[in-house]
Amino acid sequence: MDKLNYIYDISKYFKPNHAGVLESINQKDLNEIEEIRIRAEKSVVVHKSFGGKFLCLDGTLSCKNTQCLCLSFDEIDDLIAAFCQQSVFAHDKELKQGFLTIKGGFRIGISGKGIYKNDALYSLRDFSGINIRIPRELIGISKKLIPYIFYDGVFLNTLIVSPPNLGKTTLLRDITRCIGDGDSVKRIKSVIIDERSEIACINRGKPIYNVGEWTDVVDGIEKSVGIFMALRSLSPEVVITDEIGQKKDLDAVFELVNSGVKMIASTHAYSIEDIKNRCFFKKLLDERVVKRFVFLSDSLGKGTVKAIYDENLKQILNRPFLLTYD
Fold first, then answer.
1. Alpha-carbon Rg of the chain, whole angstroms?
2. Of 141, 151, 160, the residue nearest 290 (C-alpha)
């Protein structure tokens, strides 16, 4: 993704008058935007790390809700249809999970009414809101962390833990780049299982982001399936994946471990107590599968490593530090 022109990758899905508002946002604001939230018949809100402001029709951001961009329910429908390349039904599998991923690695969160078939959630319709998350590529952000998860020439099974929107995927992306390019570590074969097309952001077979020369990507396939595919055919030394936590992921993780392949993954949680209390992680904890639990926060700024625990849940970090990049 072009860091200077990403807004054009988003605005092309909007009607011309709405696109013009987005394209009028100044460069300083564009560099700091994390989310663009669109709610039907309400003013569009742009979120930065310090909070949200309304998007005015002239492209400026304001605390006042006057002369702001606002989309109707029909315009929300049209925008989601554009995200789906005018084939909403073809994207039902994604929609029922509440998101789409469009070219450039933009995750589009969607709110609406659930549609059920045979007592199972089939899709979403009657759309009422959209959240566009802006991904970042921060080259070198993982370098301070690498010494904690790379020991005696090998990577340790690592779980990166934090609440949403604190940089887990950005950090995973740069760890993968270090592994695949041999930056600060020995270059080894790695595979990304990129279920939501957010880590590498494949476009026509080519990653948009730099994930390393020795890195393969299994894109758009469920983690539990993709991990087995990688083990059968790609002979990875490290597998990287995002947001594990479903029961079906567990068997795949143990298959990795039993095959001698290392895992670096992320999950949503707030504390080590939160991890202890979740059924999914009980077996991982009991078997001492994960050797490093890395907790992120925003206490020193977004991308703060606030704690690192070993497999015995012993704290091994003396003080929090902020991840920085080149």
1. 20
2. 160
Domains of the chain from N-terminus onward: 6-133 (3.30.450), 146-322 (3.40.50.300)
Q: Could you give the CA distance from residue 216 to residue 254 in angstroms, rounded to a whole number? A: 21
Reduced to 3 states, what is the DSSP secondary structure of residue 271? coil
280 contact partners, CB below 8 Å, separation of at least 6: 244, 245, 246, 247, 249, 250
160-219, pLDDT tens digit by residue?
Answer: 999 988 999 999 999 999 999 999 898 999 999 999 888 998 877 888 899 999 999 999
The identity of residue 231, as a single letter, is L
Bridging pattern class, strands 154-155 and 150-151: antiparallel
Question: Sign of dihedral through CA atoms 30, 298, 137, 139?
Answer: positive
Give the model confidence (pLDDT) of 281-315 as tens digits.
Answer: 888 999 999 999 999 999 998 899 999 999 999 99
